[in-house]
TrEMBL record:
<keyword id="KW-0732">Signal</keyword>
<dbReference type="InterPro" id="IPR035914">
    <property type="entry name" value="Sperma_CUB_dom_sf"/>
</dbReference>
<protein>
    <submittedName>
        <fullName>Tolloid-like</fullName>
    </submittedName>
</protein>
<dbReference type="InterPro" id="IPR000859">
    <property type="entry name" value="CUB_dom"/>
</dbReference>
<feature type="domain" description="CUB">
    <location>
        <begin position="1"/>
        <end position="117"/>
    </location>
</feature>
<dbReference type="Pfam" id="PF00431">
    <property type="entry name" value="CUB"/>
</dbReference>
<keyword id="KW-0677">Repeat</keyword>
<keyword id="KW-1015">Disulfide bond</keyword>
<feature type="domain" description="CUB">
    <location>
        <begin position="124"/>
        <end position="206"/>
    </location>
</feature>
<keyword id="KW-0325">Glycoprotein</keyword>
Length: 206
């Protein structure tokens, strides 16, 4: 099923009643050009079997998306899981729900909401990501919710020879920090001019 509405709800067959056996359902959620998809799995009651975390019987799976929430990797199954949010890397997300032939289960399935937003995907790169000309940078999950702890994001901005880079902070709200931003529990932004010269920023408003 292809979905291109600005917002909506998807769920397993017959939800909130027990879902049938031998089901394979898929949803392709596509945003308009320039937008991205945010999916929040709000309710999970999916039969779990196999080794811990493998979800070999029934499962929910999200493709072409990214999440920093615990339990979001791979297949999803289980009961009363915390809410999980996914963010599309490009303009669409694919969601799959699969149930096997086990007739002994009595699970209600899942429900999720989705919406379109214009945002920079909240992916925190672990390697340097080159950018050029112009663009936007943001902390993970901005502006939907608070950024995740223990992140280390790096961007390298490159321009043609003879050009210079202008970096402007349009919104800035980090926790308090030591003057030299040296604490391991500190949240801060460092801006390098070349390989060594740097400025460090922390706090609420610049």
């Amino acid at each position: 099923m292809i979905l291109n509405e600005t917002s909506g709800v998807i769920s397993s067959p017959l939800y909130p009643r027990h879902y049938p056996d031998n089901q394979t359902c898929s949803w392709q959620i596509t945003a308009s050009q320039g937008n991205h998809v945010v999916l929040e799995i709000t309710t999970t009651d999916v039969h779990s079997c196999g080794a811990s975390g493998e979800c070999t019987c029934d499962y929910l799976q999200v493709q072409n998306g990214f999440s920093v929430d615990p339990g979001a990797s791979g297949r999803i199954c289980g009961i009363n899981l915390p809410k999980i949010s996914y963010y599309s890397i490009h303009e669409s997300l694919k969601v799959m729900f699969v149930s096997d032939s086990s007739s002994s289960k009595r699970n209600d399935g899942f429900q999720a909401t989705y919406k379109q937003l214009n945002y920079t995907p909240p992916i925190c790169p672990t390697e340097a990501i080159p950018l050029s000309n112009n663009g936007k940078l943001s902390s993970p999950k901005y502006p939907m919710s608070n950024y995740t702890a223990s992140q280390n994001c790096t961007w390298i901005i490159t321009v043609p020879v003879g050009k210079h880079v202008k970096l402007a902070f349009t919104d800035f709200a980090l926790g308090s920090c030591a003057l030299d931003c040296s604490s391991e529990s500190c949240t801060y932004v460092e801006v390098y001019n070349g390989a060594s010269a740097k400025l460090s920023f922390a706090g609420e408003i610049l």
